[in-house]
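Researcher: Let's continue the batch. This sequence belongs to Endolytic murein transglycosylase, and it's 385 residues. Same format as the previous ones, please.
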Amino acid sequence: MADKESRGTNKLDFKTKIRNNLLERRNEARIIRRIVAIITLIALLAVGGVAFFGYNYVKSALEPVDANNNKLTEVDVPIGSSTTSIGKLLEKKGIIKNGTIFKYYVKFNNISGFQAGNYKFSPSMTLNEITETLKTGKLVREAIFKMTVPEGLSLDQIAKIIAKHTEMSSDDILKKLDDPEMVKQLMKKYPEILTDDILNENIKHPLEGYLYPATYSFYEEKPSLESIIGEMLSQTNKVIIKYSGMMEEKAMSVHELLTMASLIEKEATEKADRNNISSVFYNRMETGMPLQTDPTVLYALGKHKDRTLLEDLKVESPYNTYIHKGLPPGPIANSGESSIEAALNPADTEYLYFLAEYGTGTVHYSKTLQEHNALKEKYITNKRD
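Model: Same format as before. Here are the structure tokens for Endolytic murein transglycosylase:
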């Protein structure tokens, strides 16, 4: 009887243990599910937080650094710059918030064709404005004023144009442009075009012929002289780079190119074939003749005249090509791209003389002095009379 009661008690204890174990496992499973739920919730919140933060970060990086800051900062983009290096440069200059975001913005929008050069950006510009500027080389915003510098102007004439847009007089501008310290600074900044050639002691103005003729847009009411000159030298640099291969083939320096181009520019009329004029100058140098071009005489005199007199031809100056053979010490004016091209591509002729017809500007060429004098009598002397 006792054994039966003992066995019955053991069965109850065993069932109780099983029940308790099941309850414990259920509790543990419930706790584990809660823990997993909490961890999952935390993970989701974390992912969501990261995504939210990432979205806002990217969105912020795509916006202007400071929409109210229109102050322009100069940014020099070197030749061969990658999108990555441009992004880092713009970030360093405070123009964009993140260079990496800039790189992916360019990539995802299939933007290409960025040009090297000297730019001016402000923190208020959008990425679209910045990329369009880098593609075209021009600021897409409306300019405060534009300054036009025509072809064939000497440095003193250009100084007068600049003076209209600064608080400096043309005389002060010319002195500043001739200042050795400023010239040295510009030489360091533009070593491809401003070489030791401009330091020749016979040169009147080191920067003569190096300020490219064009219409320039400015985004400040009174830009500094340095920024104005920087724009013009950058444009010269852009043009000259295109002809670097031809210059190397002809063993021609930038200084020689711009000097020859300036002579062509000053002699050419609207109806002139610059390549023919170029051929005359090269033919003369090959035969040992002086160039005998009147604009160099007037430059030596420091005067702007419609006619050169016989007494003018006697002025003692290294620029006077009537008494000194070969090219003058340096350019006598700025020159446009057509004259630069002509200086590199003279026509294949035997011409040694040319003259512009009085009243029409039509240019006539000749191989001999006798032919030249006959043309002079026909198209100049008789027409003036």
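Researcher: Any comment?
Model: The chain has three domains: 73-136, 151-241, 264-384.
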